[in-house]
Amino acid sequence: MKNTKFELSVGIFVILGIAAIAYLTVKLGTGSIIGGNSYLIEARFNNAGGLHSGSSVLLSGVTVGRVEAVRMDPSDYNAIVTLRLRSGLRLPTDSMASIKTTGLIGDKFVALAPGADDKYMEPGKRITLTESAVDLESLIGKMAFGSVDKKKDNGEKDGKTNP
User: With 148 labelled, which of 49, 87, 90, 139 sits at a CA distance of 20 to 30 A?
Assistant: First the structure.
């Protein structure tokens, strides 16, 4: 009888441990444990290029928030990115947001660069200075195939070499 009570208590303990690990994994994955109180601001980009909700928001290499949502503005087809930032962070109104990549083909994140204005952004406002994501595929394509006119530079015209 003692053995079954012990096994039952160990089983309950293991189940509670697994539930706690699952809960913390979900909370850390969404970033809701980090920061506690927060506020929302928006940024308008021409190209959000692989940015998704849950991506990090960094300021000077330090995580200060998460991307809450990425949606398209139907009036001008730009991407509107909603950022959830820590409540203690005060950004000047002339701050800049840019979409960067970790490494060559890593995840996308939003990098904030604070401005020098004396006024600070209010919650719900929009960052107007933005830099869209660099499209690496088109950049590599331009580097590899962009110089089609090399024949003309080498003195070739219409497929024939000039003497």
Answer: 49
Which value, to the nearest 10 degrees, does the dihedral of the CA atoms of residues 41, 44, 48, 51 take? 0
Q: Which stretches of the chain are DSSP H helices? A: 2-30, 136-145, 150-153
pLDDT digits (tens, 9 = 90+) for 21-51: 988 887 776 555 554 688 899 999 888 888 8
Q: Is residue 114 exposed (0-12), middle (13-18) or buried (19+ Cβ within 10 Å)?
A: middle
pLDDT tens for each residue of 94-103: 999 998 888 7
Q: How many domains does the chain have?
A: 2
The parent domain of residue 12 ranges over: 1-30
Q: How many CB atoms lie within 10 A of CB 41?
A: 24
Mark whether 13 and 69 lie in a shared domain.
no
55 plus 25 within the same structural domain:
no
